Amino acid sequence: MTALAIHQLEKSFGGLRVTCGVDLAVEPGERRLIIGPNGAGKTTLFNLVTGELRPDRGAVALFGAELTRLPARARAHLGLSRTYQIITLFPKDTLLRNVMLSLLGREKRRWNPLLRLDAQRDLLERAEAALARVGLSAKARRPLAETSYGERRRVEIAMALAQNPRVLLLDEPFAGLSVDERKDVQKLLAGIPRDVTIVMIEHDMDVALDFAEKISVMHFGEVIVEGTRAEVVADKRVKEIYLGE
Amino acid sequence: MTAIRVALLAALAALIAVPWWVPGDYYVSVASQILIYAIFALGVDVLIGYAGLVSLGHAGLFGLASYTVAAALAGGSGQFGAILLALAVALAGTAVFAALSLRATGIGFIMITLALGQIMWGLAYRWVDLTNGDNGINVASRPMPFGLDLEVATNFYFAVLVVFLLALLAAWIFVHSPFGASLAGTRDQPRRMTALGFHVWLIRFFACMFSGLLTAVAGILFVYYTKFISPPSLQLTSSAEVVLMVISGGSGTLLGPVVGAALVVIVKNVASAYIERWNMLLGAIFVAIVLFMPEGLVPGAPRIWRAVLRWLRANPAAAKGAAE
Q1: What CATH class has B24-235?
Q2: Which of B4, B116, B303, B306 is deepest in the core (most CB within 10 A)?
């Protein structure tokens, strides 16, 4: 069964067609890279998949389960997680609190007004484990505002992984990182087990091309080329887009 | 941490001892009024401080509870029945209020709550058959829980104190719970919270209900306190006053609304005996708070205290001069 199946997805903002009949099929365990110039509709595609935007036409399915009409919050419960291109975390809270909120999102306990959150030992331990996974154990109790940009990127990934997603959408996880930070994140992503399917948007070709098995190239809201690294790099249209020949 | 605990215990002891250290029944009543407004302000703070939603219509809900008690008693209901009915009516009112206002956040939320509050005020003013219009409704007597005569100012104060402490405890449990954390999350990053699987609208709705419950409790105590309710209690200025209590004391804290309520009620009742233009005094105090500690008195005072200490340490000469 296909992990993430997108069928003839369309979305327009007024007269601007940002997604024009996109078809995409990502297999379980696959690492898929989506590239394309600015404005190609990559992030919009993510927003359509997670439900933050409603498509005008088309369908999205996660392991065969139809998502198209589900609200965004319900999609998280089916095993869909994402990170954001522009970091959206809780700056006043500690790293631990950030990850605990993420864990809470998948728990019935999130509705409970009588328990003490800090007394939920299992949540604390799982949050600590998630931070250990991204190498941030030492800073778990620091407020997020005191961390560096690169560390915040890793917190984003820890929060997404903490939810045990089946499909993980990464929106430019390397954006704005230094060379060393890139290597850290790269190692971190390589360590994610294959029961998590990953779809990644990225501009940094050096890092991204190594990571993915299959690459989809988007341009003006369409997937114009799809294939392995060698196929995509050799494709004439890709060269035209990126080199302007 | 222990210093805070000692301070809190001292404050609690001072509250319990109020009838012995304030001069006379009038001031005991002022203390009751402070605690009633503190409960009201806690209710509004749940929305402002923890949900990030500013309501300018809460006096309408407060008045709904007050009027229900007064009208039920006037209609011949028992005290207990009147109180239960007031809670039920105010919560039902809050549910409608929340369902309508939560169609928006930010300025939109403020404007819808303002409009709803004005509607409640208009009903109190114009629905004369039920509310007696401008003349308001008198409440003949206070309840007698466990045979305790609440007509005595001291007894009434203790009853209010017990309810206040329960409300404060409930608010403390609420904000430290998983639900409280979810609510604070919807305040900071609603979009992210949705992606994490939270039902942002429903979380806000339940927060409104809890806020409405505290507001209703305050409204019920208030109508027994004044033994009278009339339309001005539901005015926009009443709603705004509570918002000012929350903001001046420190929104997003539990003690802030209590301190803010004390500030406003004391200036209104005590300072007004000495200064005719007490409104101006209150305004000046608010301006000073906004200028020097925009986060409110409770979070701001320790910050300024630390800054003063640091300055004194850096300028030992000045410290010496101050000591002499």
Answers
A1: mainly alpha
A2: B116
